[in-house]
Amino acid sequence: FAIGKATERVDAFRKAKNKAIHYLHYIERYEDHTIFHDISLRYKRTHIKMKKQPRGYGLRCHRAIITICRLIGIKDMYAKVSGSVNMLNLTRGLFHGLSRQ
């Protein structure tokens, strides 16, 4: 993910998309549907607890985490967000946790 700043929304979106292409990451998945193990992390004031779930459980988490997990290919996971729910910190924390699993 990346951030683009501009006066017009369309220009900011284009800048963010072009910057994000340079920061692509591959996230490993357990049996191609969930995370490898339970993860608990803190990013600034955002606390995220992610739990591995069996096949068919679904995504039961914050709406931003659901969107990101669908794009990654994670289908079954439980996540609880406490503290700050700032979208930028939530996204950075999620990627930080998933990259260290």
The CATH level-2 architecture is identified as 2-Layer Sandwich
CATH class: Alpha Beta
DSSP strand count: 4
Largest sheet: 4 strands, mixed
Instruction: Could you tell me the CATH topology label.
Output: Ribosomal Protein S5, domain 2
The ordered H/E elements are: HEEEHEH
| Number of DSSP helical runs | 3
What is the structural class? alpha+beta
Which word captures the global form?
A: globular
Strand content: 15-25%
The percentage helix is 25-40%
Strand adjacency order, main sheet: 1-2-4-3
Rg, alpha carbons:
14 Å
Family: Belongs to the universal ribosomal protein uS5 family.
Pfam families: Ribosomal_S5_C (PF03719)
InterPro entries: Ribosomal_Su5_D2-typ_SF (IPR020568), Ribosomal_uS5 (IPR000851), Ribosomal_uS5_C (IPR005324), Ribsml_uS5_D2-typ_fold_subgr (IPR014721)
GO molecular function, one term: structural constituent of ribosome
Key phrases:
Ribosomal Protein S5, domain 2; 4 strands; four-stranded mixed sheet; alpha+beta; 101 residues
